[in-house]
Design goal:
Number of helices: 4
Number of domains: 1
CATH architecture: Beta Barrel
Shape: globular
CATH superfamily: monomeric porin ompg
CATH topology: Porin
Largest sheet: 19 strands, antiparallel
Oligomer: single chain
């Protein structure tokens, strides 16, 4: 067994496991009777008051956005599924789908308490919610190293730069107001207080691997930042001894803003735009920097030796144990110190247009969304058909293309007097494995919620 095979397994396992796991649903952008549509554009408001007093009942969103999927790592060979590291799978076949590396954007949003009401010349909203966002970046060179290794034993150098894993978790308190500026122009804004709960960020700015026949040399440069929710103990040599659950509290404070507007250009055509999550969180925690001293691996030293007569352990088993110790020694840190970390929110720009026909019973929408955040900027263009046969039922179906692939989505919305219930998905996978796991890009987003409504404006069905 070569050490790069063990490293390869770690890389592939991380990417596949996480991809099986997304903030707002773009499919609901043109869903005009949905209570929570102001979360996408603060100028959008329903024609009723609402309240959601129970956690999760008022809205939940979970999913992922990614440029990779299970099909990038599992391949059919002789009627069986094998990983791309299997010798039967060529390097070109395995690496072809990983030219841009692996980027994963994982998000969850859970509404705790929310309500909206008409007052003070406009519409007002209050929301208390929990947010979790995680980003993972693995470069193409990491997978090339895992698959190709050291061809022919020749001296080989890999530049494995910009490897990053980060997770930010916070509570958001949002206050919003929307009002009619002119007969055709409506504008809205929100201000948000953000209370940080937990954060962690591992950033490898440099990971140079020089492979020669006699030894490998690895140079690392980067840092690990964590808040108090993680308690890490280090050995004297800088290796991680153990990590355990720490203390829970306010680990950061921040502020955010949402801005939005809609303009009725024609009786049948409305243009709109919004800029959401403008802001930052300042985190307090501990930072440990990677030891810049090179790590040297000298290879196997017991292959061909006799089994240990005292323990009966084979020489090969001893080497496997040594590899495990070597992998742990790769992550060596210098002295941990108190530090702060400024995290920018993943700001999203939405620009939309909607054209209505048949007395607004059917509408066609076009929405451009650009999200500036980790692990990379994400942009999407979505076209939708929106059906409103009666005031208490809406449905939208859409298709989208983005720099992370293409997808279809749908949302259904029930809005009789008394409650508003919706459920849908921006990304519906079309191909599944026998186990029910999507085999294409790991793009998934489920949104659902229900609120109690009152004070409906009079509108004919």
């Amino acid at each position: 067994m070569k050490i790069y095979k063990r490293l390869a397994s770690l890389a592939v396992a991380s990417a596949v496991a996480i991809s099986a796991m997304a903030q707002n649903s773009n499919s609901s952008y043109f869903m005009e009777s949905m209570a929570n549509r102001h979360e996408i554009n603060p100028a959008f408001t329903p024609d009723y008051n609402y309240v959601s007093p129970l956690p999760a009942l008022g809205g939940m969103l979970i999913g992922s956005n990614s440029n990779i999927g299970v099909s990038d790592f599992l391949f059919k060979h002789n009627g069986q599924l094998v990983t791309g590291l299997n010798q039967a799978i060529s390097a070109d076949e395995f690496l072809n789908g990983l030219k841009n590396g692996a980027n994963l954007d994982l998000n969850m949003k859970l509404n705790i308490l929310s309500f909206g009401f008409k007052k003070w010349g406009g519409y007002n909203t209050f929301g208390l919610s929990v947010h979790s966002t995680t980003g993972i970046t693995l470069p193409y060179e990491l997978f090339e190293f895992a698959k190709v290794g050291q061809p022919g034993g020749a001296a080989t150098v890999y530049d494995l730069h910009h490897i990053g894993v980060s997770s930010y978790n916070y509570v958001e308190l949002a206050l919003g107001h929307s009002r009619q500026i002119t007969d055709r122009l409506r504008a809205g804004a929100k201000v948000k207080y953000l209370a940080g709960i937990a954060a962690a960020r591992l950033q490898l700015d440099r990971l140079d691997l020089a492979m020669a026949q006699e030894q490998w040399s690895i140079h690392e440069q980067g840092s690990l930042f964590t808040t108090d929710i993680v308690d890490i103990a280090y050995k004297d040599n800088g290796e991680i001894d153990n990590a355990k659950f720490g203390s829970v509290g306010i680990a950061g404070n921040g502020i955010g803003f949402d801005l939005g507007a809609s303009y009725e250009l024609l009786d049948e055509l409305t243009l709109s735009a919004s800029l959401t999550d403008i802001g930052f969180i300042s985190w307090k925690g501990q930072r440990a920097r990677l030891n810049p001293e090179p790590f040297v691996y000298n290879g196997f030293s017991h292959i061909g030796a006799e089994d240990d007569p005292a323990t009966g352990e084979s020489a090969f088993d001893q080497e496997v144990d040594q590899i495990e110790d070597d992998l742990k020694a790769l992550a060596r840190f210098e002295q941990e110190t108190s530090d702060s970390h400024l995290q920018s929110l993943a700001t999203t720009l939405n620009v939309g247009a909607e054209y209505r026909i048949l007395n607004e019973k059917i509408a066609f929408g076009l929405l451009s969304s650009t999200r500036f955040g980790m692990p990379k900027t994400w942009t999407e263009l979505m076209a939708s058909a929106n059906f409103r046969p009666v005031s208490w039922f809406n449905m939208t179906v859409n298709g989208s293309v983005s720099n992370l692939g293409h997808s279809i989505g749908t949302v259904i919305n029930f809005n009789p007097k008394g409650f508003n219930f919706y459920i849908g998905s921006d990304y519906i996978p079309m191909k599944y494995a026998k186990q029910g796991v999507p085999i294409s890009d790991a793009k998934f987003k489920l949104t659902m919620g229900m609120v109690f409504t009152f004070g409906h404006d009079k509108k004919e069905n």
